[in-house]
Design brief:
By secondary structure, chain A is mostly helical. Chain A has helices at residues 3-34, 41-56, 62-81, 88-113, 119-142, 150-172, 196-218, 220-230, 232-237, 242-264, 275-288, 294-314, 319-325, 327-337; strands spanning 186-189, 192-195. In chain A, β1 and β2 (192-195) form a beta hairpin. Chain B contains 23 helices and 14 strands. Classes of the chains: A mainly alpha, B alpha/beta.
C-alpha cells in the first residue's frame, strides 16, 4: 500500500468519523435522558444541511415554515393540557416560545433569503430553525408518550422519521444540494492537503465533546440531565422537571445534527434522504461505545469513519456491509464479557 | 384454554371472501399482502411483545426465505414444495447463527444489534452475484398442485391464509404451554424464571427461531406470489415497518399482529390512492401523513389497537379449575430428623470493597425451620442469592445433602430441591395466578415446544396445572386462581410466590420476607402452613423482620450483622443474647 493513499484515507476517515462522533454523542444523550432511540437524528442532519444550502443560494427553506407549524402544534398541546386551569403567565410563555419565536425567525428567514445572506447568517438561521424543530417535536410527538415503554417510543420515533423524511422531499426536492464552504482556503502539510472545511469539522467536534463534558460535569442543568437519565422518578422527586430535561436533550440533539449537516454539505452532496444512513453510522459508533460513554463513542466513531474510508477504497461495493457487520464482533465481545445483569423493565 | 370458535368463524369468513360476488380483485391482492405481513408480525409478537426481544431484522429473514426458494427453483429447477422446508430451514439456521450473537444482548443493544445485521444483510442481498445483485431474481415458478398453477392473486390467497391461520394456531398453542409460560416470563427479567429451572438463553433462542421461521414462510410465499425477488422489500426500512405493525396491532397478542398488518397495509393503500386526489402534485405526502398518523395512534392507544378493541368486549369467561386428582411424581424425602440438608461453610461475597457476606457458616437440618435475621443490609438476601446460585460466592462452600454445589447455576440448584421466593415480588403480572404458579413446576414437566404447538402435551400439561392448582389451594388463594397476578395485593402476591416455590416439590424452601405486607390473620395462617410443611418433611429457611412471627415459628435463628454471623440458637437464647440486642437497638455510650 502506498503511504500517501493510506494517509489520505485516514484523513478522510477522520473527517467522516468526527461527524459520526457528534451524531453518536447526540444519540447517547437523547437515549439516556428520554429513552427515545432517535432515528430522526439523520433528518436533523439533512434539515440543517439543506436549510443552509437553500439559504445560501437565496431560497426560502420550507423548514422555517415547518418550525412555525410545529410550534403552533406545541402551543395547542400546551393549551390542551392546561385547559382545566388556564394560567395566564404559563400560557403567555408557551405562546412566546412556541408561536412568536418561530414567527420572528420565519420573518427573518424571509427577509434574508431574498438577498443571499453571508455564510454566518445562513449558519445561524439554519441552526435556530432546526433547533426549534427539535424542541417542538419533543413536545408534540414524544412528551405525551414519555411514560410508555422504550419500544413504543422507538416506534413513534420511526413515525417521526417517516414524516420528516417525507417533508424533506417536499421542501428540498429530490435533487441533492451542496453548500458553500464554512471556511475556505487550505494548506498542505507533506502530501496531505488540509482544507479549511475539514479543520472546521475537527475543531467543532472537539469543541462539542469538551463542551458536553463540561456541561454534564459542571453545570446544574447537566447534572439534572444525568440524574434524569439514571432515575426518572427519583429526579422528579428531587424537583427536576423531567420535561425540561427532555427538551434540553432534544434541543442539543437537533443543534448537533444541524451542525453536522452544515459541516458536511460543503464536502458531499446531500439528498433529502441521506440523513438516515449517516445517522445510522452514528448509531454504530454509539453502540460500540455502549450507549453510555461519550469518549468511547467518539473513539468508536473515528474507527467507523476510518473503516468506511478504507472499505470504500478497497471494496466499495461492500462498504455498507462492512460498516454494519463491524458491529457483530463488537456485540459478540460485549455479550461474552457482559455479566447477566437483571434489568427491571417497565 | 382459549375458545377455538372465533378462530373457526374467522377462517370460514376468510375462506368465503373470494366467493363474494363482485369482490374487486384488487381487494384480494390487499388481503394477500396483509396475510404475508401478518405472518412476520406474528413472529414479532412472540419475539418482542411476549418475549421482550425487540428485532429490526425480521425483513432479512423474509429475504432468506424468499431468496432460498428463488435460487433453488430457478437455478436448480426444484419444485416450490420442495423448497418450502428448505426455505424454513435456511431461515431457522441463520436465526441460530445470528441468535447466538445477538440474543444474549440485553436491553437496547439487542434492537440496535438486529438493526445492524438487518442493514448489513440487505446490502449483502444487493451485492451478491448469485442473488442477482440489485435486480434480484425473476421468473420464479408459481406454486402448483397437479396441473393447477397458482398464478393469480386469488389462487395463492388460500395458500397464504391457510399459512396465517395455521401459524396463529400453532403460536397460540405454544404460548399456552409449559414452554410458553417460560417464554412469557422472559420479559420480566430472567432471575425468577431461572430460579425454577428455565434456561432463559434457550427460551430466547426458541422464540427467535420461531419468529425467523414465520418470516421465512412469509418470504417463501412472497417469492411465489410475486414470482420475482429483489432486495428492496428486505431492507432495514421494511424491518422497522414490521416492528411497528406489531406494536400498532398490540405487541402482546397473536391476533394483534394480524390486525396491525391489516391496519397498516390498508392505511398505506388508502393514503397512496386517495391523498394525491386531495393534495395533488407533491411527492411523498402519504409518507408524511402515515408517519403522523402512526404517532397519533400510539398517543391514543399506546398498548396497540387489539387490546383496546378487546376492552369493549365482555370479559371472557374464566378458565375452569384443573382436575386436581392428577398427580406428579414426588421426590424422595430425607429420612431422619438429624440429617444436614444444607451446609454453608465460610461463605463470603465481596462486591468490590464491600463485604456483603463475611465468612458465614450455618446448617439447616431436615424438618427444621431456620430464620435468618438481622438489621437492614446485614447480608440476608445476598446469602439467599449465594445459596440459590443467583450470585457466585467469592470464597467458601455450600453443600446440599453433603454434595458441594457452590457456583452452580440456579437451574441446577432448583433441581436439588431448593426453591425460593423473592424479597421484591417477581411474578409475571399479565399472567394468571395459576400460570404463574405453574412456572414453579417447570422442571416436573417434559413437553417441548414442538409437542406444545401440536397439542401433544395435554396429559403432561394437565398434571402441571393440577399441581399448581393444588398448591394454590394449599396456600388459600383458590378464589384468585384465574385472576391476573398483577391485580392481587402485594401480600397476596407474596403468597403466590410461596405457592410457586412449593410447585418445585422442594426439600428446602427459602422465603425472603414472606410476611411483609400481610395482615395479622394472614400471618397466622402463613405460620400454620409453614409448620405443616415442616411436619410433612420440608425444611424452611426464612428471612423476616417481624420478630413476633419469627420467634413463634422458628426452631433455630441465625443472626447476621454487617455480613457477619453474630449469634445462632433457639429463639429463647437469641432474645437474651447481648450481641443481638446491641445490633438491633444499639448500646448506651
Amino acid at each position: 500500500m502506498n503511504t500517501t493513499i493510506m494517509l489520505f484515507l485516514v484523513q478522510d476517515g477522520i473527517t467522516n468519523g468526527a461527524i459520526y462522533a457528534l451524531l453518536g454523542l447526540a444519540l447517547v444523550l437523547v437515549f439516556a435522558v428520554t429513552r427515545v432511540i432517535l432515528i430522526p437524528q439523520g433528518e436533523f442532519v439533512t434539515y440543517g444541511a439543506l436549510t443552509y444550502a437553500s439559504l445560501a443560494s437565496g431560497q426560502l427553506p420550507g423548514t422555517a415554515k415547518l418550525a412555525l407549524a410545529l410550534g403552533i402544534g406545541a402551543f395547542a398541546f400546551d393549551l390542551f393540557v392546561a385547559r382545566k386551569a388556564l394560567h395566564g403567565r404559563l400560557i403567555l410563555r408557551s405562546f412566546l416560545t412556541n408561536v412568536v419565536l418561530p414567527a420572528i425567525v420565519l420573518a427573518l428567514t424571509f427577509y434574508f433569503a431574498a438577498q443571499k445572506p453571508p455564510v454566518a447568517v445562513c449558519i445561524a438561521l439554519s441552526l435556530v430553525i432546526v433547533a426549534m424543530i427539535g424542541l417542538y417535536l419533543y413536545r408534540v410527538a414524544f412528551q405525551p408518550l414519555a411514560h410508555t415503554s422504550v419500544l413504543v417510543l422507538l416506534i413513534a420515533s420511526v413515525g417521526v422519521h417517516l414524516a420528516l423524511q417525507g417533508l424533506g422531499l417536499l421542501f428540498f426536492g429530490a435533487e441533492g444540494q451542496r453548500g458553500p464552504a464554512v471556511l475556505s482556503g487550505s494548506f498542505t502539510a507533506g502530501a496531505l492537503r488540509f482544507t479549511g472545511q475539514s479543520l472546521t469539522v475537527y475543531g467543532i467536534t472537539i469543541a462539542f465533546i469538551v463542551g458536553l463534558w463540561l456541561f454534564f460535569g459542571l453545570t446544574l442543568y447537566g447534572k439534572a440531565l444525568r440524574a434524569t437519565a439514571v432515575n426518572r422518578l427519583g429526579a422528579r422527586l428531587a424537583g427536576i422537571r423531567t420535561t425540561l430535561s427532555g427538551q434540553i436533550a432534544f434541543l442539543l440533539a437537533s443543534v448537533i445534527g444541524a451542525l453536522s449537516g452544515i459541516m458536511i454539505v460543503p464536502i458531499t452532496t446531500l439528498y433529502y434522504d441521506s440523513g438516515f444512513l449517516i445517522g445510522l453510522k452514528g448509531f454504530v459508533a454509539a453502540i460500540i461505545g455502549g450507549l453510555v460513554s461519550y469518549p468511547l463513542t467518539a473513539v468508536a466513531a473515528l474507527f467507523v469513519g476510518i473503516v468506511e474510508a478504507f472499505s470504500s477504497f478497497y471494496a466499495s461495493n461492500y462498504k455498507e456491509v462492512i460498516v454494519f457487520m463491524l458491529l457483530i464482533p463488537v456485540l459478540l465481545l460485549r455479550s461474552l464479557a457482559a455479566p447477566a445483569v437483571e434489568e427491571e423493565k417497565d | 384454554m382459549q375458545s377455538r370458535l372465533p378462530i373457526l368463524i374467522f377462517a370460514l369468513v376468510m375462506a368465503a371472501i373470494p366467493f363474494v360476488p363482485g369482490m374487486p380483485p384488487f381487494w384480494i391482492v390487499l388481503l394477500d399482502n396483509i396475510g404475508l405481513t401478518a405472518l412476520v408480525a406474528m413472529g414479532l409478537v412472540l419475539l418482542t411483545g411476549v418475549g421482550g426481544l425487540t428485532s429490526f431484522g425480521q425483513a432479512a429473514f423474509v429475504g432468506f426465505g424468499a431468496y432460498t426458494t428463488a435460487v433453488l427453483s430457478t437455478a436448480y429447477g426444484l419444485s416450490p414444495w420442495l423448497t418450502l422446508p428448505l426455505s424454513l430451514l435456511v431461515s431457522g439456521l441463520l436465526a441460530v447463527l445470528l441468535g447466538l450473537v445477538t440474543v444474549r444482548l440485553s436491553g437496547h443493544y439487542l434492537p440496535l444489534g438486529t438493526l445492524a445485521w438487518g442493514l448489513g444483510l440487505f446490502y449483502l442481498f444487493s451485492k451478491l452475484e448469485f442473488l442477482g445483485r440489485n435486480d434480484g431474481i425473476s421468473a420464479i415458478p408459481p406454486l402448483s398442485i397437479g396441473s393447477f398453477k397458482m398464478l393469480s392473486p386469488g389462487s395463492i390467497y388460500y395458500a397464504i391464509w391457510v399459512a396465517v391461520i395455521v401459524s396463529a394456531l400453532l403460536t397460540m398453542n405454544l404460548l399456552d404451554s409449559r414452554t410458553g409460560r417460560a417464554i412469557r416470563a422472559l420479559r420480566r427479567g430472567h432471575v425468577a424464571a431461572e430460579a425454577f429451572g428455565v434456561h432463559t438463553p434457550r427460551a430466547k433462542m426458541l422464540v427467535f427461531i420461531h419468529a425467523a421461521v414465520l418470516a421465512g414462510l412469509s418470504g417463501w410465499l412472497y417469492a411465489h406470489l410475486q414470482r420475482a425477488v429483489n432486495p428492496t422489500p428486505f431492507g432495514a426500512q421494511a424491518g422497522i415497518e414490521y416492528l411497528f405493525i406489531a406494536v400498532v396491532g398490540g405487541a402482546g397478542y397473536v391476533w394483534g399482529g394480524v390486525l396491525g398488518a391489516a391496519i397498516v397495509v390498508v392505511l398505506k393503500e388508502v393514503l397512496q390512492s386517495y391523498l394525491p386526489l386531495i393534495l395533488p402534485g407533491s411527492g411523498q405526502v402519504e409518507t408524511i401523513v402515515f408517519g403522523i398518523m402512526l404517532v397519533a395512534l400510539l398517543q391514543l392507544a399506546p398498548g396497540g389497537v387489539w387490546p383496546w378493541l378487546m376492552s369493549f368486549l365482555p370479559e371472557a369467561t374464566r378458565g375452569k379449575k384443573p382436575d386436581t386428582s392428577l398427580k406428579l411424581e414426588q421426590r424422595p424425602r430425607a429420612p431422619g430428623q438429624d440429617s444436614v440438608l444444607l451446609h454453608v461453610e465460610k461463605a463470603r461475597k465481596q462486591f468490590g470493597g464491600v463485604i456483603a457476606v463475611n465468612n458465614v457458616s450455618f446448617d439447616v437440618q431436615a424438618r427444621e425451620i431456620v430464620a435468618l435475621i438481622g438489621p437492614n443490609g446485614a447480608g440476608k438476601s445476598t446469602t439467599f442469592n449465594l445459596i440459590t446460585g443467583v450470585l457466585s460466592a467469592t470464597s467458601g462452600s455450600i453443600s446440599v445433602l453433603g454434595k458441594k454445589v457452590d457456583n452452580a447455576p440456579p437451574q441446577e440448584i432448583v433441581k436439588l430441591g431448593i426453591s425460593r421466593t423473592f424479597q421484591h415480588v417477581k411474578l409475571v403480572p399479565d399472567m394468571t395466578v395459576l400460570e404463574n404458579v405453574a412456572i414453579g413446576a417447570h422442571l416436573r414437566g417434559h413437553s417441548g415446544p414442538i409437542s406444545s404447538m401440536l397439542r401433544l402435551d395435554r396429559a403432561d400439561e394437565a398434571k402441571l396445572l393440577a399441581e399448581a392448582a393444588r398448591q394454590i389451594e394449599r396456600v388459600g388463594l383458590a378464589e384468585q386462581m384465574h385472576q391476573l397476578a398483577g391485580s392481587l395485593s402485594l401480600g397476596q402476591q407474596r403468597i403466590v410466590e410461596i405457592a410457586r416455590a412449593l410447585c418445585v416439590d422442594p426439600m428446602l424452601l427459602l422465603l425472603d420476607e414472606p410476611a411483609a405486607g400481610l395482615r395479622h390473620m394472614e400471618k397466622q395462617r402463613l405460620a400454620t402452613l409453614l409448620r405443616e410443611l415442616r411436619d410433612g418433611g420440608m425444611s424452611v429457611l426464612l428471612v423476616e423482620h417481624d420478630m413476633g412471627f419469627v420467634m413463634n415459628l422458628a426452631d433455630r435463628i441465625v443472626v447476621l450483622d454487617f455480613g457477619t454471623k453474630i449469634a445462632e440458637g433457639t429463639p429463647a437464647t437469641i432474645k437474651t443474647n447481648p450481641e443481638v440486642i446491641k445490633a438491633y437497638l444499639g448500646v448506651a455510650a
